[in-house]
Specification:
The chain is globular. Helices cover 27% and strands 8% of the residues. It has helices at residues 7-18, 33-42, 82-87, and strands at residues 27-30, 51-54. It has a two-stranded parallel sheet. The chain folds into two domains: 7-74; 75-105, no CATH class.
Length: 105
C-alpha cells in the first residue's frame, strides 16, 4: 500500500533475505503510474506473479487481494516533496488535504 517506487518494500525483503528468510512481492498498490512503472522496471522484488494495482487504496476490494503474511504499508507521499509543501503552503506533509484519507473497512 502506497508502494511508490518500492523502496520500503525492497529494504524489507532485503532484510528478510539477509536473515535467511525467503520472501516475494505478492501485490503492490500505488496511485501514480510513473512510480509503479519505475518500481516494476528497476526493483528486483517483482516476480512474474506479483500483482500491480494502480489506483487509490480505498477503491481496492480487500477480498479480491491475494493473501500475504506481511503487509507493507508505506505512508503516502501526497504532500511530502519539499516543493509541494511550499506550493501548497503546508507546514508538514500530513497537512495535505488528501493525506491520511485512505481507510479499509
Amino acid at each position: 500500500m502506497a508502494h511508490g517506487a518500492g523502496i520500503l518494500d525492497y529494504y524489507l525483503h532485503k532484510g528478510l533475505e539477509d536473515h535467511g528468510i525467503r520472501s516475494g512481492l505478492v501485490w503492490a498498490v500505488e496511485m501514480e503510474n510513473i512510480y509503479l512503472q519505475t518500481s516494476q522496471n528497476n526493483n528486483s522484488i517483482w516476480a512474474y506473479e506479483s500483482q500491480a494495482i494502480e489506483g487509490h487504496i480505498e477503491d481496492v476490494e480487500p477480498r479480491e487481494l491475494i493473501r500475504q503474511d506481511i503487509l507493507v504499508a508505506g505512508l503516502p507521499c501526497t504532500g511530502d516533496p519539499k516543493a509541494w509543501r511550499s506550493k501548497n503552503k503546508l507546514r508538514f506533509a500530513e497537512a495535505h488535504e488528501s493525506a491520511g484519507t485512505a481507510f479499509i473497512g
